[in-house]
Amino acid sequence: MSLPAHDDDAEPPLSPADPWNALRAHTPARIALGRSGASLPTRELLAFGVAHAQARDAVHAALDVTALRAGLAGFGLPILEVRSAAPNRAAYLARPDWGRRLDPASAAVPSASVTPPAVLFVIADGLSAVAAQRHAVPLLAATLPLLEGLAVGPLVMATQARVALADAVAIRLGARLVVSLIGERPGLSAPDSLGAYVTCAPQPGTTDAERNCLSNIRPEGLGYAEAAQQLVALIRAALAAGRSGVALSMQAAPAPSAIER
Length: 261
Known about the structure:
The chain is α/β, with parallel strands linked by helices and 261 residues long. The chain has a single domain, classed as Rossmann fold (3-Layer(aba) Sandwich), CATH 3.40.50. Helices cover 29% and strands 15% of the residues. It has six helices and six strands; from the N terminus they run H-H-E-H-E-H-E-H-E-E-E-H. The chain has helices at 42-60, 65-72, 89-94, 129-143, 165-173, 224-241, and strands at residues 79-83, 119-124, 152-159, 177-183, 194-200, 211-217. Strand 2, helix 4 and strand 3 (152-159) form a beta-alpha-beta unit. The chain starts with 41 loop residues before the first helix and ends in a 20-residue tail after the last helix. 39% of the residues are buried.
């Protein structure tokens, strides 16, 4: 005679539900990875390998200046091309100081024919040319219309560049403020993060404390429209105060009419 089945006889699930799983929808961070015995599941090991390869590739990728120039041409501004003193990618990675200096040919940027601008944009490969390639043009498309009343200089493309290379270009062109749109160091969840570094009154030896930075600009992070609003607020406040970095107070951003052209 068979006995009725009880709930206790039901087979337990292969693995209990992880309470962290619901949080994975809100972050690309590596949480709730699960486990297989004492190790990670194979799928997570493979995903980690892919992310690591993407980050490594982003560091070594070259900026496609021809494609970038074509994208920038629609803004109707002059386009210049410069490079740092680093002769190649290996030297750039080994000698950060070379990436902050213009090479001799680029030091001859034709500044005499350029009216000193209030704002200069330098699009640089940095540590992720992929980021500059993907995000610089759409970010500029959202930003430039908000700079009405300000003289914007040529759009400068820079290769093998560190952030401070923009200072050297700005000094050469007489810009009051320079924005370096540069590929940031790739992470394992973001190989294409773009940074925007704002420096007012750039000069040789400008430190990072004298800059303001917006980070993680990309559709999955700080979106173009919001980044443009924040960037323009920084630009206008820095020009009005004559300084940037930790010395800049953003408590009262000036109206556009308060800033001289």
